[in-house]
Amino acid sequence: MIMGQGNTAAYTVVPEGSITTPKGFKAGGLHCGLKKTTRHDLGAIVCEVPAAAAGVYTTNVFQAAPIAVTRESIGAGGVLRAVIVNSGNANACTGKQGDADAYEMRSQFAEAIGVPAQQVAVASTGVIGETLKMDRVRSGIAELPAKLAANSQAGDDFCQAILTTDLVKKEVCVQVIIDGKPIHIAGASKGSGMIHPNMATMLGFVTTDAVIGSQALQTLLRQVTDLTFNMITVDGDTSTNDMLVAMASGLADNRELNISHPDYEAFSAALRYVCEVLAKAIARDGEGATKLVEVQVRGAESDAAAQAIAKTVIGSSLVKSAIFGADANWGRIIAAVGRAGQPVNPETVDIRLGDIVTLEQSRPISFDEEAALEYLKGDTVVIYVDLHMAEGSATAWGCDLTYDYVRINAAYRT
Whole-angstrom Cα distance, residue 414 to residue 411? Predict the structure, then answer.
């Protein structure tokens, strides 16, 4: 199924694709004992050749130890051979011991697969403030190479290994034609709570077999992140561990992608689609969530202003609570618009819930309350805000705020 168009190529979704579909990549996962359950809690992605790499990271001042390790690895030359990930423990706020443990994870896995340590990235997710049970991690790392494979089951095992409170795995794969050659872009992510990124998501991983340099990949990854992962929120909390890493094996044998390449926009559109699918999956899977909520802002003074307004509306606890209760309370929406700190003409705002107009030129419109109730009971709610000022636009995604969110987070550590 064609999902979008570039300048000279179309990207298509690969229904059975996984993080291992791009040429050169293997993945896997297993249970090493970091989680109390028997769910996988240690996983890895490995590339058979040095892959051009890029990363974006949390802006939280308290950054987990794996962030520093991964920054160092990618910064050493823009090349990665692997990323190793654990769930069940964030290795955050764990001092010098946490740093040592993250570096040991890197060196142990590098030795296990026979690559330089500085070509391995590390990521962790889970409870903050507890040191890793390194005896279990070491045992898991020793077993992990045998679990690595280039098939969808291995991709699924990796997806399962990175989950915490997530209810479902999050993955997507597309094909796009570059220089007449089929190349693939795949992504996997995790995230359900502590989601209000200023970089990416809690954890996200992208693989591609396209030929693209690390600098061009880094620039594109930041641009795409700002339009996707940075436009979601579940609870307004930015994690200590947020990280998005992209790896390009270059095995598709296309001409190197850069901004002057005729198919660059096609590749960019495909990458944006992958990241948007993952971002929306995180928002839909928000802790306790029953609905995906989308906010589209149009007519703002700039795209940046529209982004700020859309994220303010999607992040409003009052708006989120109203959506959960199927209450067409547009007053909460316009209040959020007005406190976003962006230019707004208080006389020209329109608001719609789906096709139901509730406000026109900042004046209430009589609408069918029963129809609004039925719309808000659905599993996807779209809020449209038109400021009628200029051409700025943006879309943000989030979820409703439910009783279950409080229940989950009231006992997260126990």
Answer: 5
**pLDDT tens for residues 56-71?**
998 788 889 999 999 9
Nearest-CA neighbor of 291 among 259, 319, 254?
A: 319
| Same domain? 166 vs 197 | yes
Has residue 287 been placed in a domain? no
* Identified catalytic residue from 21, 58, 125, 201: 201
In this prediction, residues 16-32 reach a mean pLDDT of 97
312 catalytic? Reply is no
For residue 286 the two structure tokens come to 């928000």
Strand partners, 86: 42, 124
* Closest CA relative to residue 105, chosen from 67, 75, 77, 160: 67
pLDDT above 60 (res 197): no
Structure tokens at 353: 């819930």
Are 272 and 297 contained in the same domain? no
**What's the confidence (pLDDT) of residue 124?**
94
Q: Which of 256, 282, 308 lies at the terminal end of a domain, its last residue?
A: 282
Structural domain total, the chain? 2
CATH of the domain at 306: 3.10.20.340
Q: DSSP letter at 137?
A: H
Give the domain-ending residue among 282, 311, 341. Answer: 282
Q: Report the binding-site residues.
A: 164, 190, 201, 287, 409, 414
User: Which residue has better confidence, 228 or 409?
Assistant: 228
